[in-house]
DNA sequence: GCAAGGTC
């Protein structure tokens, strides 16, 4: 008989086995899941890691067909819990049948308690056993040993609070999503799903609120009086003390008084040292924000990359709330690892400074240490083991952040001058980085020096220029992904591990998109939020998550039973649901509008022309077997035309086929195809449809020079094939303009190279004007 | 096909 321990993940299982056994354990495999065996105090121990939740809720089978079930029914249907990871359940049963006691050792949080209860439930199906709980806040040796010598009872309330979350989230998500999707499909043909959820919807809500601010923004005029000074040959600028002046008269009045002044007097000077402290250690949220802000890597990708770096042993566990190191954290051995290679300089600075001081934050989730490097690696090492495009950039950020955290503050010397011009005060500031400290290793945050000439109080300076400029206040900027993460974190939307996936869901649904680092809301997302805001405003706001959160907190605290929380939560969802359904028509009409627009946009690409048989529209049809043009009147009209098998097709709407083809299409970059006729290069109308692009008269015969483009070159040739040729630029996009050269009468060529301005010149290399 | 939460 053995003592069986279940942890939340494999990594924790092996770590705990190693600590409790002093490193003497065997790795076995049960149902191909790793199990760590050892003996302690004469007892047999077996530790297995789960993989997060191994059970999940869903509605019973008969509620699975969306069309056959009123979504409202879901609110009164209790979901059922099923095993979602069969091998783990089988392994638990096997271990439990040979056990005398079970110890739950998952993470010490709500979900961890719940995952433990999943194992408990499966274990109790095969054997009646005492089940205990080991509570630890980190995987350090002392904590683990303490937890296992002070086992406690599993916390039923805590586990049930997570149960309440799962059931309420599912009920709400499924009912609302099905209702929305089905209502819209009554009006618009779409396969898309319009989803709503207690995390994804308020996440989109943040983007929507910002969009509204931008849309409703009214710019205001303001004036600013600036001076350009010069002293000892160096220019520098100052701003009038009034700053942004919102009344034109006031700005004009000040400016009129001083506009002819030529000299300023330095009235006051102060020099102060300023410091910028190194950043706190990285927890998940901070890491994701910085990866987005500094590297332009999306939160989803950043978390996945960090996961891969962790699995390959380069960096620590990426999901942590903690931004402070434990007192006994071993910085020194990590730093020694970096004392060669590209981080050498910084590691040595820290090691040689005597005491190693980290700048700790204040958050302690009692889970894992802040994200830090585990071992030193080169770019090659990383790229060989981790197949993610930004693996090296992410690793480099983690290492640099780790080192920066241990370095000295950056020191600046800030100089402020007050310069009097005609009795008016102008403020001048300068800043010099005197000691870069941590900024040296952290190139992501740049601080530019703003240099001032050496000036003392009572000096006179030249006034080179005075300006009174009008500006407008600018609207707020669109949110960046980093800012969105901050908002989600602040309002408790999602967890450290799920926040990126809520952003991703919104992108997948077509609610918003990212362009670089900024997020723009799309039509569907804006309309959905706007209609929800008008009918069930609580849904668009973080409040919805807070309401459910407070219910489950009551369960955790023992102030409410699971059943009470579920019925209260269901009531809340029902209230919102009835608000939503009461404006079904208005919502569906507006939403269908945005969906129909999308449909038309994609259809437009597929529309080919008018069917000569029945007058309806012809469209392109793609099947597994191939593609062809068919009539939208099918099955009444069975008219079809073949299309070439390969090449991208574009309908050339401005071209008409002279031989009666229903449309002309461009096939790749190669040739044209007349629908109903065939390829244009076999047609006797070819010369008429595609006359050569004449650029000028041939200088040697009576023919004309025209552009000839072959697979690997392009040049000018003569229509009479007289043998005269001229060259044209080999690269860049070439256009023959209608404009003629004033010197020789040839056409002007326009050449546009990527990332360069277009150039225009005469096509004739022998032009007298060239 | 629907949510959010774990982790592989």
From TrEMBL:
<dbReference type="InterPro" id="IPR000380">
    <property type="entry name" value="Topo_IA"/>
</dbReference>
<dbReference type="InterPro" id="IPR023406">
    <property type="entry name" value="Topo_IA_AS"/>
</dbReference>
<dbReference type="InterPro" id="IPR013824">
    <property type="entry name" value="Topo_IA_cen_sub1"/>
</dbReference>
<keyword id="KW-0238">DNA-binding</keyword>
<dbReference type="GO" id="GO:0003917">
    <property type="term" value="F:DNA topoisomerase type I (single strand cut, ATP-independent) activity"/>
</dbReference>
<dbReference type="Pfam" id="PF01396">
    <property type="entry name" value="Zn_ribbon_Top1"/>
</dbReference>
<keyword id="KW-0863">Zinc-finger</keyword>
<protein>
    <recommendedName>
        <fullName>DNA topoisomerase</fullName>
        <ecNumber>5.6.2.1</ecNumber>
    </recommendedName>
</protein>
<dbReference type="InterPro" id="IPR006171">
    <property type="entry name" value="TOPRIM_dom"/>
</dbReference>
<keyword id="KW-0413">Isomerase</keyword>
<dbReference type="GO" id="GO:0006310">
    <property type="term" value="P:DNA recombination"/>
</dbReference>
<dbReference type="InterPro" id="IPR013497">
    <property type="entry name" value="Topo_IA_cen"/>
</dbReference>
<dbReference type="GO" id="GO:0006281">
    <property type="term" value="P:DNA repair"/>
</dbReference>
<dbReference type="InterPro" id="IPR003602">
    <property type="entry name" value="Topo_IA_DNA-bd_dom"/>
</dbReference>
<keyword id="KW-0799">Topoisomerase</keyword>
<feature type="domain" description="Toprim">
    <location>
        <begin position="2"/>
        <end position="141"/>
    </location>
</feature>
<dbReference type="Pfam" id="PF01131">
    <property type="entry name" value="Topoisom_bac"/>
</dbReference>
<dbReference type="InterPro" id="IPR023405">
    <property type="entry name" value="Topo_IA_core_domain"/>
</dbReference>
<dbReference type="InterPro" id="IPR034144">
    <property type="entry name" value="TOPRIM_TopoIII"/>
</dbReference>
<dbReference type="Pfam" id="PF01751">
    <property type="entry name" value="Toprim"/>
</dbReference>
<keyword id="KW-0479">Metal-binding</keyword>
<dbReference type="GO" id="GO:0006265">
    <property type="term" value="P:DNA topological change"/>
</dbReference>
<dbReference type="GO" id="GO:0008270">
    <property type="term" value="F:zinc ion binding"/>
</dbReference>
<keyword id="KW-0862">Zinc</keyword>
<dbReference type="InterPro" id="IPR013826">
    <property type="entry name" value="Topo_IA_cen_sub3"/>
</dbReference>
<feature type="domain" description="Topo IA-type catalytic">
    <location>
        <begin position="155"/>
        <end position="577"/>
    </location>
</feature>
<dbReference type="InterPro" id="IPR013825">
    <property type="entry name" value="Topo_IA_cen_sub2"/>
</dbReference>
<keyword id="KW-0677">Repeat</keyword>
<comment type="similarity">
    <text>Belongs to the type IA topoisomerase family.</text>
</comment>
<dbReference type="GO" id="GO:0005694">
    <property type="term" value="C:chromosome"/>
</dbReference>
<dbReference type="GO" id="GO:0003677">
    <property type="term" value="F:DNA binding"/>
</dbReference>
<dbReference type="InterPro" id="IPR003601">
    <property type="entry name" value="Topo_IA_2"/>
</dbReference>
<dbReference type="InterPro" id="IPR013498">
    <property type="entry name" value="Topo_IA_Znf"/>
</dbReference>
